[in-house]
Amino acid sequence: MNSINCCVIKIGSNVLTTKEGKPDLERMNHLVSEISNFHKKGIKVILVSSGAVAFGRKEISLPEKLNPVLKKQIWASTGQIELINKYKSLFEERKLQVAQILVTKEDFRDRKHFLNMKNCVLGLLSQGIIPVINENDTVAITELMFTDNDELASLSAAMVDADTLVLLTNVNGIYTGSPDHPDSELIRVVAQDSEELASYISATKSSFGRGGMLTKLNMSKKSADLGIQVFIANGKQDNILTNILAKDTDFTYFEPKKAKQSTKKWLAHGDQYFKGEVIINQGAKSALFDQKISSLLPIGVITIEGEFKKGDILRISDEQGNRIGLGRAEYPSKTALEKIGQKNQKPIIHYDYLYLFHHE
Is the Cα torsion angle 280, 283, 286, 288 positive or negative in sign? Predict the structure, then answer.
């Protein structure tokens, strides 16, 4: 396990709520105390916190028949005020300041937005301010929603080049079966070459959040692939962050691969943001996966689908329809279509802006 210098800590809904669905203020206070101790040790912390809907539900009761999306928007928008105010007062008691950043998937899709957001977060950290990032639920529509805050936390860790991602939930980590089953064992380490673990995990979602353990697994593996070490641990447990730092508690640890460039970290999460698709031939596919560094040239392109402009994210697939990777378009779709199959052309995707799936 590597040392922790900059980490994203995600606190799940079930950590911040009681069994009755009310905000667990005692737990919140304890975790703020632990994060403050991280700060004192010189560790930069970005906080991704669930709980806004639970806070809103406590404040406002809504008719059963009301549209579920509207209900969530109302609870999230009112609860967000309660949540951030509580964090503000708890951190102020420890002489620390917080800043709120509300985002949608659109902010991660556009490279300019992404870099502006990154600069803002890094600026806050440089001034000793703790950024609290959350989804802007009030404007996010279904197709632009994050799967849950695990995805947002994973994206945030990639964005700021964090070395560590901590996902706090209400169990000790990933088990070989249901955590409640007596025969289930905690998976303590997920090595870089670990076999598929999804079969162990039930699709059950938490009572207050959108996602479940499967999302945590997928986001953890993606983060580890980008060079970020990941801990899934029990946020209901006292001193959990201190014990993670001391490696003296139960958790599931994902071994990180070699760190990727920041541009490739941005692209790695772009599978839902791509604007067009490039289908390439076998020769181009072999060249991309060769040990020699290669960009994607028009001569290897069979077809192009969708309309895109320079700078948009493109998905790369082979002739059999297998997804190969993602890249940033070096020119718009109209120009790209004109260059298909031609020799001696500039790359449609430069290697510096190319991310290949399951490949170093």
Answer: negative
136 close to 103: Cβ distance less than 8 angstroms: yes
Please give the CATH topology (third level) of the domain spanning 6-260. Answer: Carbamate kinase (3.40.1160)
Positions at the binding site: 10, 50, 137, 149
- Annotated binding site for ATP: which residue ranges? 10
Closest CA to 50 of 180, 205, 199, 209: 209
CA proximity to 310, closest of 356, 265, 353? 353
pLDDT at 260 (0 to 100) = 79
Give residue limits of the domains in the chain.
Answer: 6-260, 274-356
Q: Which parts are annotated binding residues for substrate?
A: 50, 137, 149
Which tokens in the block code for residue 346? 């500039």
d(CA 218, CA 222): 6
Positive or negative: CA dihedral 120, 124, 126, 130: negative
Compute CA distances 169 → 38, 54, 211, 236, 313, whole Å: 19, 15, 11, 8, 32
> What count of Cα atoms within 13 Å lies in the side-chain half-sphere of residue 200?
20
Query: Which whole number is the average pLDDT over 108-125?
Result: 88
What's the pLDDT tens digit per position in 231-245? 999 999 999 999 999
Take residue 3 and report the two structure tokens written for it: 């040392």
Lowest mean pLDDT among 29-33, 71-75, 330-334: 71-75
Reported pTM: 0.83
By mean pLDDT, which of 125-139, 147-161, 208-222, 272-286 is the weakest? 208-222
In contact, 46 and 160? CB cutoff 8 Å: yes
166 three-state secondary structure:
strand
Whole-number Å distance between alpha carbons of 216 and 333: 35
Q: What CATH architecture is 274-356?
A: Roll (2.30)
Give yes or no on whether 6-260 and 274-356 have one common fold. Answer: no
Residue type, 325: G
Average pLDDT in the 48-71 region? 87
Provide the 10 A C-beta neighbour count for residue 45: 23
